[in-house]
Amino acid sequence: MNFLCLDFEGVLIPEIWQYVAKETNSKELMLTTQDLKDYDELMSLRMKVVNEKNIKLSDIQEIVRTMEPFDGAEEFLGWARQNFQVSIVSDTFYELAWPLVEKLNFPTIICHHLEIKNDQIVSYSLRQNNNKQKVVEALSNLKYKVLAAGDSYNDINMLQTADKGIFFQAPQHIKDEFPNLLTADNHEDLKAHLLEYT
Ligand SMILES: [Mg+2]
User: Fold this and answer.
1) 166-193: per-residue pLDDT in tens?
2) Is-catalytic flag, 185?
3) What are the φ and ψ backbone dihedral angles of 88, each rounded to 5 degrees?
4) Contact assessment for residue 43 and residue 28, using Cβ atoms and an 8 Å cutoff
5) pTM of the model
6) Which end of the chain is more exposed for a tag (fewer CB within 10 A), N or C?
């Protein structure tokens, strides 16, 4: 039994902060890990907007509850869980993502925490730096063969450390930077890449 690590946003669900951007008219929140390589820079920007616009945790949670996983994501995840040990490995936060985790029947997810005071997001706490890569390394140390899929700059270390790393619907500019990685355009493609490891 091999292990499959899946990025969350961009692979199984849409980008949470882009929904928040639309609902709160905050253009700066449209930027994602597909645009900025430095995750701390991206999160600092998000925190600045959240504070300036006084966007509360409950406001974001309400928006997230209206979101749905990608078409086909639930079916793909069901197939994956029958054939691999699976964990979502994400740079999102439990406090934001949980309604979508629920919609996918509570798969394992390794991600970060937000620090909340009186419904205000005061800061964020990363599990550890470079968490995605470290998860893959930890699983390798447990003697698993590790497959991984993701769509953005924050997945590169995970994808390159895994025994097999696959881009899922990554934008062309990122694929061009890392031409050594396999690519999948949809969940069926991804399944096809994974089949030989089942
Ligand atoms: Mg992503």
Assistant:
1) 999 999 999 999 999 999 999 999 999 9
2) no
3) -75, 135
4) no
5) 0.95
6) N
